[in-house]
Amino acid sequence: MKWNRINEPKKALFVQATQPVCRYLLAARDPSGPHVMACGSFELDDRLPLAQQIKERILEQGIQTQQVVLLLPRAVVEVASHNLPPATKEELPELVSHAVALAADDASGPRTIDFLVTSQDHTGIDTLVFSSEEARVRKLEASFKSAGFQLSSVTLSGMGSVELLRHASYRLGKTTIVIGIGDHDVDLAVEINGHPIVFRSLPIADEQPEVVSQGINTEIQRMMALYHIANDESTRLYLLGNESEHRQLSEQIGNELVTAVVNVNPFEEVQSTVDTDHPSRYANLVGMACAWNQSEIRLDLLNPRKPAPKTGPLRRAVMIAGAAAIFVMATIYMGGRERAEQDRAIELQKTKLKNLQRRADKAQTLRDIADAVDDWRRNDIAWLDEIRELSARLPSPDQALIRRMSMSTNTSGNGVIDLGVQVSEPEVVARLEDAVRDARHSISSKRVSETGGQQKLPWAFETQIVFKPSELPELTVVEETGAADEAAEAAENPQPDGCKAKAGGD
Question: H or E segment at 165?
Fold first, then answer.
C-alpha cells in the first residue's frame, strides 16, 4: 500500500456535525496507522456556516490544516439497496444511476450518488447505494472553500465505525453488528462477509443505560429478523468505546441478546496524544482517519464513481480512414503526370471516397438497425397483456393497493415485475401469491412489515413476479438486391470520352 504519495496531504481535519454537536479530529499520515494529534467539540450555531465555526475553533487550538473530510449524519443521506444485472466495473455506475432515477421522487431534485457492492455472482450484483442532494454537497464545498479549506471528501458518518473495525486487529465473524454511541443518537451498522448491508441511526431521548439498551436491542432484533441473521457464534457484536464508559450498557445488551459484546476503544487502534472522557463519540472520526491514512475512503459523495463517457463506433472511422489513405496514395502516385491527368485522377478518387463513405454510412445504419431489432426482439414482451392478466388476479382494492411497479427482463429473457404493495392484513399476501402463481408465473415476497401510516392498509411488503414470455412468431428476413447501389455507382462514375459501357456489363 502506497501511503506516502507526494501529492497527498500529510494532515487532514475530520468533521462530524450531528445536531446539536459538532466534533472534529486532526490526524496525520503514518505508515503504522494515523496519528491523532487533536480533537474537540462544540455546540453548533444554526446562524453561522459550519465551515466558519470550524475555522474559529481550530484557530483557538492553534491547529493549521487545509484538508477536510466531512462526515454527514444518516438523516441527510438516503441509503437503499438495489439488485442489478451482471455488469462490468465500468458499466456499474450507469446501472446504479438508472436504478436511483427510477426510484427517486421527481420533486427531490438532482442527487449525488455513490455505492458499495455487497455481493455479486453470475446472476447479478447487490449494491448499497448512498445519495444526498447535490445542492447540499456543492453548498458545503463552496462554504469550506470560502473559509480557506479544501473539502476533499464527503461521506456517511456510519461508515467510520465500519472502517474502524476493518482496519483494527479483531477477528470479525460472518456477520458483524457495530454499535456506536453518539451525543444524542446511536449508529448501528451491519456487515455480512465484510460488506456493509444496512446503516441505522436511533435518537437517544433518555441517557439511562437500561432505556438505551432496550431501544438498541429492539432494533438489532428487528434487523436480524429482516436480514435472516443467525443469533449464534457466527454473529459478533462490537460496542465502540472503552469498557468503563459503557460497562452497564454492554452487559444489558449482551444479556438481552444472549451473546458477548466486545468493547472497542477507537483511540487504542491508532497512535494518539489526546485524552477524552468519551472516546466512543469520536469513533466515526477515528475510523475514517484510518481509511484516509491508507487512501481507501470507499464512499465519497463529493467524488463519486460516475458512468464512463460513451465512445463512438470504430467501424465507420476505420472504413473512412482506409478510404482516405487510398485517396492520398493515389494522389502521390499521379504526381508526375500532367496537370489535366492529375485533376481527372483526383476527381475520380474523390468520387470513390464519396461512394465509400456512402456505403460505410449505409452499412453502419443497417448494423445499428439490426442491433436495435435484436435488442427489441430479445425484450419483446406483451406487457399490457401481462398487466391485464395480473390485475384480474389481484385482491380487491379494499384489501390490496399497488404503490410501486417496475418491469424489466432478466438475463434469461424472462419478464420480471417488481411490486410494492400495501395490504389490509398479512394473510392477503398468501392469497395474492396463490392467485398469481401458475405454470408460467412464479412469485416471491419479502419485507412484510407494519407501516402504521395507512389505517385501512397498514401492512406493506415487496414482491417479485417472474414469468416466461409467450412465444413470438419468427421474423422473415428479405434480402435486398444490389441493383440500386450499382445504378447509383454508375451514375457517379461516368466513362471517359470515346468509351461506352457494354449493354450487359462485363
Answer: helix 158-167
* Domain match, 199 and 73 both: yes
The verdict on residue 2 lying in a domain is: no
- Please tell me the distance from the alpha carbon of residue 264 to that of residue 176, in angstroms, as a whole number: 13
Q: Which of 71, 19, 2, 118 is nearest to 287 (CA)?
A: 71
Q: Which of 285, 72, 302, 267 is nearest to 160 (CA)?
A: 285
- Nearest by Cα to 394 from 353, 426, 428, 361: 428
Which is it for the CA torsion 358, 360, 364, 366, positive or negative? positive
pTM assigned to the model: 0.61
Structurally, the chain folds into a number of domains equal to 3
Contact status, residue 279 vs residue 241, Cβ threshold 8 Å? yes
User: In whole angstroms, how large is the CA radius of gyration of the chain?
Assistant: 32
3-class secondary-structure state, position 152 = strand
Q: Are 400 and 361 members of one domain?
A: no
Q: Which residues pair with 191 in a beta bridge?
A: 176, 196
Sheet strands side by side (includes 111-121):
78-84, 124-133, 111-121
* Average pLDDT over every residue of 66-80: 95
- pLDDT computed for residue 102 by the predictor: 86
pLDDT, mean of residues 478-492? 52
Contacts of 427 (CB under 8 A, 6+ apart): none
Comparing 30-34, 167-171, 258-262, the range with the smallest average pLDDT is 167-171
Our measurement of the distance from residue 155's CA atom to the centroid of its chain's CA atoms, rounded to an integer in Å, reads 13
Q: Is 413 left (phi over 0), alpha (psi -120 to 50) or beta?
A: left
- Separation of alpha carbons 320 and 350, rounded Å: 12
Q: Report residue 227 as a C-alpha cell.
A: 436480514
The C-alpha cell of 3 is what?
501511503
- 35/55 same-domain check: yes
CA distances (Å), origin 12, targets 8, 60, 85, 146, 430: 10, 17, 38, 17, 55
